[in-house]
Amino acid sequence: MTAIATSDTALQLTRDGQLKHFLTLDGLQRPLLTDILDTADSFIEVGERTIKKVPLLRGRTVVNLFFESSTRTRSTFELAAKRLSADVLNLDINTSATSKGESLSDTLLNLEAMASDMFVVRHSQSGAPHFIAQSVTPGVAIVNAGDGRHAHPTQAMLDMLTIRQHKGSFEGLKVAIVGDVLHSRVARSQIAALNTLGVAEVRVIAPGTLLPRDVESLGCKVQYDMRAGLKDLDVVIMLRLQRERMQGALLPSEREFYRLYGLNTEKLALARPDCIVMHPGPINRGVEIESAVADGPQSVILNQVTNGIAVRMAVMSMAMSGQVAERTRGQAEGEQA
Amino acid sequence: MTALLDTDQLLNELEAGLREQLTSRAVTSPALIGIRTGGVWLADAMNKRLGLEQPFGELDISFYRDDFSRIGLNPRVCPSHLPFETEDRDIILIDDVIMSGRTIRAAMNEIFDYGRPASIILCTLIDLGARELPIQPDVVGRTLSLQSHQRVKLQGPAPLKLELRETGQ
Amino acid sequence: MSEDRQTSIRIVNGRRLTAQGEAAGTESLLIENGRIAAVGEAADRRHADQQLDAQDCRVAPGFIDLCCYLREPGNSQKGNIASETLAAARGGFATVCASPESSPVNDSTAVTHLIRDTATARGAVRVLPIGAATRALEGELLSDMAGLSAAGCVAFSNGSAVFRNARILRRCMAYAQTFGYTLMLQPRNQALSADGFAHDGQVAARLGLLGIPEVAETAAVMEMLLLAEEAGVRLHLSQLSTARSVDMVADAQQRGVAVTADVAMHHLVLTENALSGFDSRFHVLPPLRTEADRQRLLAGVRDGVIGSIVSQHQPQDPAAKRAPLGETGPGLSSVESVLSLGLTLVERDELTLPQLIGALTQGPAAVLDRPVAGLNEGDEADICIFDPRAHWVASAETLMSMGKHAPVTGSPLPGVIRYTLSGGRLAWPVG
Questions:
Q1: Are residues A157 and A300 in the same domain?
Q2: pLDDT for the residue C321
Q3: Helix A153-167 × helix A185-197 angle, to 10°
Q4: Which of these, A125, B49, B109, B143, is most buried using a 10 Å CB contact count?
Q5: Could you state, in order of their start, the residue ranges of all structural domains in chain C?
Q6: Which chain B residues contact residue A328 at CB under 8 A?
Q7: Shared-domain flag, residues A159 and A140
Q8: Which CATH number do you get for residue A220?
Q9: In terms of domains, do A109 and A232 share one?
Q10: Are the C-beta atoms of C11 and C385 separated by less than 8 Å?
């Protein structure tokens, strides 16, 4: 319409189409996603060496800015940054404490005074990393480590890497995402990535209370019946179910949810025999997945963890690289002017 | 305009030089590592010529370059692949062209991250001079001095052809 | 606006434009003592202290805004009566209704008097206070409506707050009906809208925004229509945003329910897509909805179901909009852009110029029981003179409002208000 909203693409990419922030997978094209996966492959090799470290980001400062605590995700970002030889500062900012006095804008001003090169941001509000990317000084890369219900693009990309390792390519794959899609930033990013990478079909399997309105518009089919949804499946991704979903009448009980939408050996047998089982973790055994499946031969949940570090190394170095390119061009144009 | 150098003869000279080095240093079981992409083709050729049993290694130095602050990350980075332990090994490091010496510095840094080698012999097909770092090859196929409008490029993998190009002024 | 003799003003070279249509030629208007004293040759012959050249311009009745936040008393960092009425004058408005959502809330005659006195002293245009329908807008206890009315409140509203339950709403309607007061209510079911701030649709699904479903509005519209029909109160529904609401209002009007409605200009121009880059300007309540909703709202204006277009001007201080979307304050700084956005609709043949002018003048006048805004001899001299072909650019520097979050900034907008007269006085430009 009349007003032109800043598109995600313009915010995330340099004019040459290089990544400079990593906020969402929406709008990123297949070649770029493939580049991320290929670069991550190279970093997996680094992780197998005696010295698991490369000097790429030596002397640069990465700030892990976590407004929502998550030791697990923060640790993988920290390890990824350290393996790139960056200096890492972890800031766990309890939002309830900061909201008393300092606004997010003020927090950012203080952090910029530390001359950081990259913020890895986790925030309970959808769009917070976008806001930060629009507010910070040019040259600082923003990597989204999960915002509200919106996106968790590094998690989705590590899942894509895991799928590619096991399936070779994305062509023809049928993938289901099971559980609390409504509240899941992981699911939104996965659906975007799977569609961009060209799988045959993405299904979401959940009761109506756990699906966003117009979920089909994201590029997926809705299946209420898990048994029917598992048919012909190559990949099944189980989502974590937060206990608080029993409040507010979204679900009656964990027991009923597990009976209808939990993954067990018997249900998994309905999928293709080589169907892999994924979970972004941490797992609620007996709530969304049976232990025998989580630890079984079709589970690739532990691969996901290894891949997480490599994907984060790839995204961090690519975003920093885009910032370098932008700055170099800025200087060149400045000299010309 | 493209001129062709006699690649086979250069390879013969490289092989002879390498054998001499190995003998004089009393190295019996070296491991070959080629730097992507030209160096990998050469490593393949030398591995066969020297009759080495084990596969050679491939090194992608993208993560070790010293110009990240100026040009960023190589978008076509591939995993390095060293199918052997480097700790205490005698390494032959091969690249197609040496000039500033920066690639070799990056390559040696990367090799050390796999383990501390006993020794490294540096072998390049062409030496263009113009060194910026105190790094000299032990074995060289040919030393060339190029005009500013001339470029050399190794084409491969099979057959290997070394091209001398005249670029537009 | 004091009672001493006013400067007489003659407007020349402009073409008159009302809800009934556009005049073929130019005619002069003479304004004396707050009224149009003469039209045409008679106006040309008489003496005037001041002459306004309306070359290339349309001369329309001054616009009336049924929903405008002046932020005074209380929120001086967001705006005040002087700044926001000047912004309104710049937007062609001769009259604005002041939302009761100030701090303190306009639920007492003291606040009503304060607003009126400040407006008289420093306001650029006529300010009509809207009283709070319930005390502190808490939706529980009735306000002193008769007292507020006597103090100058022209209607009652609960702002963006909701009634605690249907029983209180029903009693509020019965009480207002007793005295013939108009209730201006924004339909919203609190339980269904909860913490939402975006239309519960495709964009909210993709961006993971907390949604306000369509039914949060339609369920409230239905409830309000049924209760109003029973009470016989004059109900004005504020800022409809969904197609279904328009249909329900049309049905009610057909069966004779005394219901009128308005729509905010931004709902006629924008859809949920405006939020796709997390642009906090477009965090408005009710939320911007789908293209189908926008189309039906436009049709509602065209067929008269929706009689009024409002600015729903809600100036915010920069900090209130500089945060992650869900933590920002709602509303646009829109009062200066209403005509321009309306003209873009006219350019796209989505509204005619008389329909646009009618919804900014005649429609709201009817809701407020003010005389039908014409431009005839004897009419109140509320006049807006604008050049439809000239352009302006909204920016932090050019906007008069303290809120700089206008719907379109940085690119040219059609339609420049050259002069606004409110009660015969020149309100815009200043000085």
A1: yes
A2: 94
A3: 50
A4: A125
A5: 9-59+378-428, 62-367
A6: 70-71
A7: no
A8: 3.40.50.1370
A9: no
A10: yes
| Residue A176 belongs to a domain | yes
Cross-strand pairs, C383 = C61, C421
Asked if residue B42 lies in contact with residue B162, where contact means CB atoms within 8 angstroms, the answer is no
**What would the CATH number be for the domain defined by C62-367?**
3.20.20.140
DSSP structure class, residue B87 = T
Q: What is the ipTM of this complex?
A: 0.92
Sign of the Cα pseudo-torsion (A189, A192, A198, A201, in order): positive
Q: What are phi and psi of A308, to 5 degrees?
A: -60, -40
Task: Kindly report the CATH number that applies to the domain delimited by C9-59+378-428.
Answer: 2.30.40.10
- Give B117's contacts in chain A (Cβ within 8 Å): none
Task: Determine the Cα–Cα distance for residues A64 and A122; give it in Å rounded to an integer.
Answer: 8
Mean pLDDT score, A124-147: 94
Q: Quick one: tokens of C99?
A: 């939302």
Q: Is the peptide bond before B134 cis (omega within 30 degrees of 0)?
A: no
Beta bridge partners of A119: A63, A142
> Up-side HSE of residue B147: CA atoms within 13 Å toward CB?
8
- Output the pTM of the full model: 0.91
Question: In which residue are the tokens 């239309």 written?
Answer: C199
Q: Which domains does chain B have, with CATH numbers?
A: 2-166 (3.40.50.2020)
- CB contact under 8 Å between C324 and A185, yes or no, is no
Q: Is residue A173 part of a domain?
A: yes
Does one domain contain both A64 and A194?
Answer: no
Tell whether A58 is covered by a domain: yes
8 Å CB contact of C205 and A217: yes
- Predicted pLDDT at A6: 45
Asked if A324 has any chain B CB less than 8 Å from its own CB, the reply is: yes
pLDDT digits 0-9 by tens, C292-329: 999 999 999 999 999 999 999 999 999 999 999 999 99
Residues A111, A25: one domain? yes
Say which of B62, B70, B75 has its CB closest to residue A35.
B75
Angle at Cα A273 formed by Cα A272 and Cα A277, nearest 5°? 80
Q: Which of A50, A53, A320 sits opposite B115 (nearest CB)?
A: A50
Q: Report which secondary-structure segment, H or E, holds B119.
A: strand B119-127
Of B71, B77, B109, nearest to A42 by CB-CB distance is B77
The answer on A145 and A36 residing in a single domain is yes
* Token pair of C210 as six digits: 């907390």
What is the extent of the structural domain holding A209?
153-304
